[in-house]
Amino acid sequence: MSQKITTLIIDMYGVILLDRTGNFVPYTYEHFDVSEHGRIKDLLENQKLFTKAGLGHISSYEFLSKLGYKDPGYHMKNYIENYLSFDKSFVLFAEKYYKQYDFVLLSTDVSEWSRYITEYYGIDKYFKYRIISGDVHYRKPDPQIYRIALKQIQASADECLFVDDSIANILSAQMLGIPSILFNRYNEQYSGEQVDSFDDLNIKLQHP
Fold this sequence. Notes:
This protein has about 210 residues and is an alpha/beta fold. It is built from 11 helices and 6 strands. About 45% of the residues lie in helices and about 15% in strands.
């Protein structure tokens, strides 16, 4: 790992949140009658409604309304607060390092959801920059989202360390010269740099 790292680029789902992909689809099926599940599946899988929201083509309100939720704001908050799991060890890690490194959140997410997550868990203060797919209209592993991140944070690739739970995302970042570590909670087969916890990442940073 480079000795010149100044910036930590950190993923949300599967890293800061224990949930790798979130639980929104089962949450939605749970909140609608089984007779509605076919319609919901078509909206999510065929009409790519979630993807559109995650790329910022529609707002959270429009996304949830199209699914049939009568109170989109409530369900956004209820889902985030009660159906996602926050890794509390991130706070200890961030408290130790956020003044030493520029923290960058790089997440594939609906814009409004990402903002609410960081606000709800009280972690806004740690991030100097946020690159969210719903804001920039590209999602990982598209190389363009990494180019946008590097331009926004005004850092060269080799000054950054990217931490993500997806091998595809890691490989895409590495193609642009960004040193990367797989946050491997799920014991995937991977021969590159990897950690399985923030304690492990802490050790990596202390002994590059």
